[in-house]
Amino acid sequence: MVIAVRRDLRMRRGKEGAQVGHASMWWLQQRLRDAVEREENGDAPDNVCEALRLSGPEVAWLTGGGCKKVVVQVADLGELLALRKRARDAGLEAHLVVDAGLTEFGEPTPTCVGIGPDREELLDPVTGDLELR
Fold it and tell me: Which H or E run includes 121?
């Protein structure tokens, strides 16, 4: 999994850590919400992985003993949105995290994007040129 963070926001370390945490779990939270909705509609399989519709790389990421995350940086919102589009165009999961603005920004603010989890050979062409955070 790769998480890209905006540099221009100059977030406090704690805020940035929280936003990266949100990005690392957003995809799984969405799958859980979808599975609960299907179950409420009587359309959920008994198998948890099938119910969550986890891909092979996602199962490997969750069970492989590390849930590898690489945090990179982008300059601003424009680069963040362009990266999310490149990731989606490449067939990758890409979730934008928008801070509610209650503590630091004063308004809803896109802070980072979580890409994956997926295989490195699919992530690297999209994110491999970005500077580590």
Answer: helix 120-127
What fold does the segment set 2-127 form as a domain?
A: Bit1 (3.40.1490)
In this predicted model, what pLDDT tens digit does every residue of 82-96 receive, in sequence order?
A: 999 999 999 999 999
- Quick check: 10 and 22 in contact, CB under 8 A? no
Q: Is the distance from CB of 76 to CB of 88 less than 8 angstroms?
A: no
Q: Tell me the three-class secondary structure of 19-74, residue by residue.
A: HHHHHHHHHHHHHHHHHHHHHHCCCCCCCHHHHHCCCHHHHHHHHCCCCCCEEEEE
Question: What is the Cα–Cα distance from 70 to 114, expressed in whole angstroms?
Answer: 10
Domain boundaries, the chain: 2-127
- 35-90, pLDDT tens digit by residue? 888 888 887 667 666 778 888 999 999 998 789 999 999 999 999 999 999 999 99
